[in-house]
Amino acid sequence: MQTAVVNAKIYVEEGRFASALLIENGVIQRVGETAGILAEADRNAQVIDAGGRLVLPGMNDSHQHLFNLGRRLSTLNLSGARSIDEIVERGRKFIAEHPEACSGLRAAGWNQDYFTDEKRLLNRFDLDRISTEIPLVFRRICGHIGAANTAALNKAGITGQTPQPEGGRFGLLPDGTPDGIFNEHALDMLDDVIPPETEEQRLNQVLQALDYAVSVGLTSVQSNDAGQGDGGQIFRIMRRLCDEGRLPLRYRHQVSFSSPDAFREYLANEYDPEINDDRLAVGPLKLFKDGSLGARTALLRNDYCDDPGNHGVEALSDAEMDALCDLAQRHGVQVVTHVIGDGAVQKTLDTYEKVLAGRPNDLRHGLVHCQITDRAQLERIGRLGILTLAQPVFIHYDSHIVESRVGHDLAQTSYAFKTLAKLGSPVSFGTDSPVEDCNPFPCIAAAVNRQDPDGLPEGGYVPSERMSVAQAVDCYTAGSAYAEFCETRKGRLKPGFWADLIVVDRDIFEIDSHLIGQTKVLLTMTDGEVVYQRPNGVEKKG
Fold first, then answer.
1. Which Gene3D superfamilies match (predicted)?
2. How many domains does the chain have?
């Protein structure tokens, strides 16, 4: 079947637009002007009249957590809480309204820097105000630090005598008892205190996330959900959705491991790149080298300026990192590593340079986040051709704290995504959802303006790093396609490319750039099929 999209402003590439395109069997056949496309289309072709609106390639989030988004949409959400008291009230209300939570409750989304009472981390005493009987584990918005109540500590058997884990720690009070604050791998100690969701519950959660994702214009996601310890559940769910025709976008697994032995077993018994198809693919090994800037667990080379004696957490040792990356390199597996602090960047580049051993970066190893950097590190990333999987939307919050965390000089060379692209690093964009909303347009606006939604800081954070709208869109489309070896099939609206596209309600190339973040998606198409349509948005005939 043919579909013609006409009367549009179709973004082809920087400086080039068309007014129509013709699709057949999910692939773009021709891009041109409306009259010519209508003349070429079959008489029974479906015609989508964009009404002069902007048509963009479908957005491709190069790093997020779709299953966690589904969980966030279906359970207690702590995002936007402005005080500890508000969190306590939300928790009590949720438990009262959801009797099934009596066996335990996970929640996430809080940020102590937004609290108006005490700007501190939640602890067990705060959560004990919600319940002393139901185990509670509430993670910070970054996911790298969290609080547990006394019931959760008791169920996990954690006391002042419990040994600290590798790659994380839990806090202790002056009397030696746990304070209920856990970071990085210490959070793993709480995994079993709350009954896990069933596979069917997780499937229903991810369906909610998928519906939301296509409504904001995502046609591809590279999602870190599967990995060590999940028993293959995520793989099974995604394969089932794909086989049943319920996957409205293209999904690529980023698979996490922290144990070389577990990764070796996965390579021997589970990894099969041949199962990849146009909708569902197994992608890179995803590693975590450090934590987050907001939680002060990002690994720095020097102490935090506002927390002397602390330079963050190394979530994965150099020896483990070397072993995992060596295994991946020898088996032809791409690696992408979570690095936020300059210490994590440095150590990860050391490992990558070892495994590359002077060879080109043909497997496209990358750095996820890549936030705190100095000039020498930026140049090294470019020289090695290491990919950057960035989240400019983090600037909304981080621009207000980065200088206090790392100092003025280092802040001026951080979040340097434009510079990285100039120096030779292939840059892609995403949101790390649900850390941030997976809506791509606030992220594009952040890359263009380098400001939060209120227009701060005035003039933009390091304004020399501001991108053009075309550069930002390309990072979200063609750049993300390159990160998954799909640059010849998606990321552009050109003949031979998959028909993944969106129609939006405003021309982001022409409007005031501060309005880009408010863009609404009117129609989303994946593989030539309309998977989302906003009511009264776009006229469709045939």
1. 3.10.310.70, Metal-dependent hydrolases, Urease, subunit C, domain 1
2. 2
Question: Is the pTM for the entire model greater than 0.85?
Answer: yes
Distance CA 435, CA 454 (A): 19
What region, left, alpha or beta, does residue 199 occupy, with left being phi > 0 and alpha being psi -120 to 50 degrees? alpha
Domain end (from 158, 190, 222)? 190
CA distance 444 to 496: 26
58-92 tens-digit pLDDT: 999 999 999 999 999 999 999 999 999 999 999 99
Residue 137 forms part of a structural domain: yes
Range of 498's domain?
2-57+494-541
Q: What is the pLDDT of residues 145-179, one digit of tens each?
A: 999 999 999 999 999 999 999 989 999 999 999 99
Query: Rounded to an integer, what distance in angstroms lies between the CA atom of residue 369 and that of residue 390?
Result: 5
Q: Is residue 285 part of a domain?
A: no
**CATH code of the domain covering residue 40:** 2.30.40.10
| 365-399 tens-digit pLDDT | 999 999 999 999 999 999 999 999 999 999 999 99
Q: Dig out the tokens for 44 from the structure.
A: 């029974």
Residue 93 domain-assigned (yes or no): yes
